[in-house]
Every structure is written in C-alpha cells, then in structure tokens.
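User: Please predict the structure of the protein below. I'd like the answer in structure-token form so I can feed it into my own downstream comparison script.

Assistant: Understood. Taking the following sequence of 159 residues as input:
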Amino acid sequence: MVYHVIIALNSVGKRKVGQIISTLEQKGLELVEIRKKITHSRVVEFPNMKQLILQYQLNELDAMVFYRRIFSELVLKKKLTHFFRNYVELLFENEEKIIDSNELWEACRQAFGNDRKFPIMFVITTSGENGFNGSFFPEDFELDAHDYFNPRTLIPLGE
C-alpha cells in the first residue's frame, strides 16, 4: 500500500516535515520519496480544473471536518488555494499491513500537540499501479478524454 502524505508549505515555501516522517515511521511506514511543488504567487494557473477536482476529492476526507471547524470558510478557501500551489508530498510504503489513513493523520496531529502549529495536511492511500508510485497530484488531467475548453473565451477582450 502506498501512502501519500501531502503537507501545505508555509508562506515562505518551507515546512519542517521531520516530525511527521518520524511519527509515520514509528507506525511502520517506510519513506520512499519526497516531492515538492512551489508556485510563485504571480503565476496564474488558468483554468484551474485540477484544483476543483482535487478539492472535491479532499472534501471526502475526515481531515476536512477538522479544518472546517478551526478555520472560517473564507480562510479555509485561501489556505486550500495556497495548498494546491505549494506543497510537499511524502510517499510512504507499507506491505505488511494496511493502516487506516485517518489513524495516520490523527497520529501526526497528536505529535504536534498544538492544533495551531499543525499544518494543513492529508493522508491518502493508493495501491500503486504496476509498482509505480505516481503523485496524487497528476500533471495532466484528461477529463473524459475531451479537450479542455479554451480559456480565452472566458476573458472579455478589450475593444
């Protein structure tokens, strides 16, 4: 089983992940890979279909209940927008037993001791495809094998 631990980077593009790694290794997971994405604040990803699809997937997770409780809707929306553009993804494996992703998320939260210091993070499990551990955030979406719409049609042109 492959475990994707996705952690939002802070406003300066950093995040100390050692505490999370050590907590998950104590649970029997083995760190396989670390991936990081940082998008400059001036870069606009348009259209942002990828973010909408991933936000829908993450809304299904129990962790979102926690984040909705401690952040207002507006603050959470801003934090999630930053999260989709700036994150570190840790890939862990465990072939011995299946551990519930909510249990792993809760263990990481407890390790911080203070909810204010706990970063926005999610733990997602996948089985991997043919031994390949792809990112939870795919680079290219093919929505039902149709072409993306032309974003220029959404922007009114000056006369």
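That's the full token string. The first helix runs from residue 18 to 26.
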